[in-house]
Design brief:
- The structure holds 3 protein chains of 3 kinds.
- By secondary structure, chain A is an alpha+beta fold.
- Helices cover about 55% and strands about 15% of the residues of chain A.
- In chain A, the strands form 2 sheets. A 4-stranded mixed sheet of chain A has the order 1-4-5-8.
- Chain A is globular, with a radius of gyration of 21 Å.
- The termini of chain A are far apart.
- Chain B folds into 3 domains: about 110 residues, Acyl-CoA dehydrogenase/oxidase, N-terminal domain (Butyryl-Coa Dehydrogenase, subunit A, domain 1, Orthogonal Bundle), CATH 1.10.540; about 110 residues, Butyryl-CoA Dehydrogenase, subunit A, domain 2 (Beta Barrel), CATH 2.40.110.10; about 140 residues, Butyryl-CoA Dehydrogenase, subunit A, domain 3 (Up-down Bundle), CATH 1.20.140.10.
- Chain B has 10 helices and 9 strands.
- In chain B, the strands form 3 sheets. A 4-stranded antiparallel sheet of chain B has the order 2-3-7-6, covered by helices on one side. In chain B, strands 1-4-5 form a 3-stranded mixed sheet, with helices on one face. A two-stranded antiparallel sheet of chain B has the order 8-9.
- The two termini of chain B are about 25 Å apart.
- The chains are: A alpha+beta, B alpha+beta, C alpha/beta.
- The interface between A and B is large, with 44 and 48 residues.
Chain lengths: ~375, ~375, ~260
Amino acid sequence: MSLYTAEQLEIKKAARTFVAKYVIPQAAEYDRTGEFPSYLLEAAKESKVFAMAIPKEYGGLEYDGITQALVLEEWAYGCQGMGTTLGASMLGTDPLLVVGTPEQKKMYFGSIVNGGIAAFGLTEPGAGSDAGAVKTTAVRSGNEYILNGTKCFITNGGYASVYLIVASTDRSQGLKGLSAFIVEKGTPGFTVGTVEHKLGIRSSNTVELHLKDARIPASNLVGAEGDGMKIAMLTLDMARPPVACAAVGMARRAIDECLKQLTERFTGKYLPPQTVQFKLAEMHAQVEAARQMAHHAMRLRDTTTSYAMESAISKLVGGDMVMSVTTQAVSLMGSYGYTSVIEKLMRDAKIMQIYEGTNQVQRLVIARGLLTQAAKRMQKGA
Amino acid sequence: MNFKLTEEQQLIEQSAREFAKEYLEPIVVSMDETREYPREAVKAMAHHDFLGLHLSAESGGVEAGFVTYIAVVEALSRSCGSVASIMNNHAMASYAIQNWGSEAVKKQYLPSMIKGEVLGAFAIYEQGPAPGIGPKAVVSTKTDAGYVLNGTKAYARNAGEAGVYVVTAVAEADRPKTAVAFVVDAKTAGVKVGERIATMGLRGCPVAHVVFDNVVVPESALLGAGGVQIINRTLALGALAEAAQTVGIGQAGIDHAASYAKQRVQFGMPVFNFPAVQALLSDSNTDCHVARMALYHAAQLVDDGEPFEVESAMVKSFLARFGAKLLVDSCQVEGGMGFVENMPLPRLFRDITGTTLVDAPSDTPERAIAMSIA
Amino acid sequence: MPKCLVCYKWTLDEQDIKIRPEDLSLDSSRAKGKISDFDRNAIEEGTLIVEKLGGAVDALSYGTAAVKQSLKDTLSRGPEKAYWIADASAETADAVVTANVLAAAIKKLGSYDVILCGEGSSDAFNQQTAQRIAALLGLPCLSFVNKLSVAGDVVTATRKLDDRTEEVSVKGPVVVSVLAEINKPRIPSLKQVLGASKKPNEEIKIADIGLKPEELQPKTARLSVKGFVMQRKNVIYKETNVADNVAKLKASLASEGLC
C-alpha cells in the first residue's frame, strides 16, 4: 500500500519534469534581475497547473489536497519565486472555492483556466498583521460599488487578471464592516503602483495597488456585506498548508544541493565529517516531519471545515523549518553555500516565516485554540 | 577582571564610529548594489591608521593591541560589513608577514600595506576535503631558484584587488601536516585570478578563485616557523576578527528592528509593546551580548599573551549557531518591511551570513574545544 | 606664531539620555560624556590656525570631577596641553559663574592671542560664555564666526548674523566664538589618540584663581529639566458623512487659532 496513488505519482513526476525544464534553468537569472517570469504562464497554460484547485465543472483540474501538495513541493524545489506566483494565484482563487455565486465562479475561474492568474488584495500599509485595520472603502452607489484605497505587498498584483479585494463597506463596524469584492484587471481607477525589490522570491511580483474611485458592478460583492473578514480568514486557513508544502520543497532542495557539493568535494576515502553528516541528518528529519504535518493539514482541508489550528501549525513548522535548514545549509557549505543557489534558498526562505500570516500570528492562532480547548475541558470537568 | 575598554580604546572606538558614519554610511547601499570595490574608503582607513592598527610599532604599525582591533572592526561593521571584511583579510596577511616573514619581505610589503597602497589577501581554502588534499590543492616544490607553487585557492577574499597574497601550500601532496606558507606578489607570472564570484552579501569585498600555475617564488618568500602553526594562529585571530563583524552587524540589525518596532503601530499600539516582539529582540540582544563578551575576553587573552585558540573556537562555534539568527529574527520583527531591499535589514541579513561560514568542514572548532575539556 | 586657547565644556551625550514617559524626567544614568558639539569646532579651528602658522593651542575646561574624562579626547584633537578645573560648583554654575571661573583661570595662565569658544554649549546653549569672558578680560569679542584667519596680530572674521554677514578685523588679542559651519572637526587618527597620553595636562584648583565666594554663586537657578516629547492629540472624527468630519476639523482648528 503506497502513501500516494499511481495518479498522484504521475502528476508529481510531470510537475518535476516541467520544473526541470521551465523553472530550474531560469531561476538564477530571474532572481538576479527580479523580472517577472511571464514565459512561465505561457508554458504552464497547457498543463493548467494554475487551475489545479478549480473544480472540473469550471474547467479546472480539481486536484485533491495531497496532489496539490506534491505539485507545490516540486515548484518550490525549483524556485519559490516562481512557486509563489503559483501559490499566490491559488490564494487569490481560494475564496471563490468556498463562497461565491455560480456566475462569479464562472467568471473568476474562467479567467484562470484561460491562462490568467489571480491576486489576493488584503494587506495595506496600516493593515499587516492587523488585517482587520483595512481602510480601503467600498461605497455602494446604485448598482455599483466605488472603491478607494491603497493595498501593498500584493503578490501577482502587476499581472493578475482577477483580484479578490477586501474593503470596508462600514468603517464604524471595524472588522465586521469588511467585505470582499472581485475586481478585474483594467477597471478604471484601479492601477498598479510601486514594485518592491525584495531580499528573496525576487521573481515573484510584489506591488502596491491603488484604487481611486474605481467602480465595479455590485454583483462583484462576494458573499454578503460584512463577510469580508470571515472570507479572509477562511482563505488564509486554506492557503497556509500550501505554504508549508512549498517550504518542504525548498528545504529538500537545500539538502540536495549540499549533498551534491559534498559528494564532489569528499571523494575516494574521504567522507564528510561526522558533525556535517549529523547536521544533514537533522535537516532531513526536519523536512520529513514538516512534510507530514503539511500533508496532514492538506488532508484536513479536504475533509473538514475546522482545521484552522492544524493549518497554522503546518505553516509555523514549515516556515521555521525551511529558515533553519537553509541557514544551516549556507553555513555548512561555507563559501560555496554563500555563492550558489544555496544562498538564494536562504533568502527565499525568510518570507516563509512572514507571508500569509507571520509565524507570530500562527502562534497566536495556535495558542488561542489551545486555551479555548483547555477552557472547554475545564468546564466539562467542573 | 576588568570589563571596560581603556580610555584610549574608547576614544579609538569613537573615532572608528565617526569614521564609519562619515566614510562608510554614504557608500554602503550603492556598494551593495554595484559591488564596487570601496577604493576611497580603504584609502581613508589607511589615512586614519586602521590598516596598521594591530601591527608592531617596529613594523610601522600603531601597536594598539588586539582588543582595540576588535573594537574598531565591530564599530565599522555596524555600518559596513564589506569594508570590515576587506580590512580583516588584509590584516591577516600583514600579521603573517610581520610575524613570520623574512626581513626582505617585511620591508617590501609592510609599509605599503599599512599605507593602503598594497592590499593583502590571506588565501587558505581550497575545493578539496581539506586544504592540502585533492588534485587542486596548492603544492610547493623546492627548486634551486626557490619554490614552485601549483594549485588553486578557492573563494579567496580580496582576490583581484590584492597586491600580495599570503598563500598556504603543502610540501607533499595530500599531507596537510606538511603545510607551509608563502608571500606571493600578485604580479608574479602564473598567478591567475579568476572571475569575480557573486556573493550573497559583503558585496564590496571581492572574492575569486586564484590559480597558481608554476608560480616561482624565491627563498625569502617562505614564511618561517612551519605552516601549520602560522595557519592556525592566524586563523584563530581571523575568527575573532570575523566574530567582531558578526556582532557589529548583528547589533545594527537588532537596534534597527527595535527602533522600527517602536513606531510601527498595529492593533492600536507599537508592535514593540507585544511581549512576543520584545522576546525576539531580547533573545537576539542577549545572544549578541554573550557573544561580544566571549569575543572581547578572547581578544584580551591575545593581548595578555595567553593561549586563546580554544576561546576563539568557542566564539566561532557559538556564532556559527546563533550569528545568522540575529538577523533572521531582526527581519522577523520588521515583517514585510524586513524583506524589502530599500530597508537596511535585508542587506544586513545577507552580510552577517557571510561572517559565519564554515569553510573547512574537517576542521571544526568543536574538536579543539572538546579536546580542551578535562 | 599665535598662542591659542580653546575653552570647552564636557557635557552628556544627549543621544544616551532617556526620557521617562511618566513624568518626562531625564534618565542620564547611561549617558556618556562628550565634548560639547560647537566646542569641537573651536578646538579644530585652533588646531588649524596652529597647523598653518605655527605656535601652540592649549585647552581649558571647567566642570565637575567628570571633566577629567575629557582630557585624552581633547588632546587627541590637536591641543598640546589641557588645563582643567574640577569643582562641584560646576554642577549648578550658570553663564556668569562659568565666565568668572574661566576668565580668572585665563588671567593666571597668561596671555593668549586668540581665545576660542563654541557659540554655545550643546546642553545649556546660553551663548554667553565668550562675550562674558571677553568683558571680564577687557578684550574684544567676535561672535557668530563662520570664517577666521590670523595674520600677524590681526584677526579677521566673518560673522554670520540673522540677515547679513559681516567681515570684521581686530588687532589681537581677541575672544572668538565659532559656529558649527566654520569647519569639519577631524576624526582623530589612532596615532593621535595614542599620542594624547603623552601630552601634559594640569589641574587648576579653584581656590587658586582668586575668586570671591559670591563670584561662584549663580545668578540663575535651574528649577527643573524635563524631556520634550511630541504629544499627539489623537482625535478621530468618525462621522459617517465626510462633510461633517471636515466641519468638525475646521471648527477644532479655528478654536486653536489655526484657521
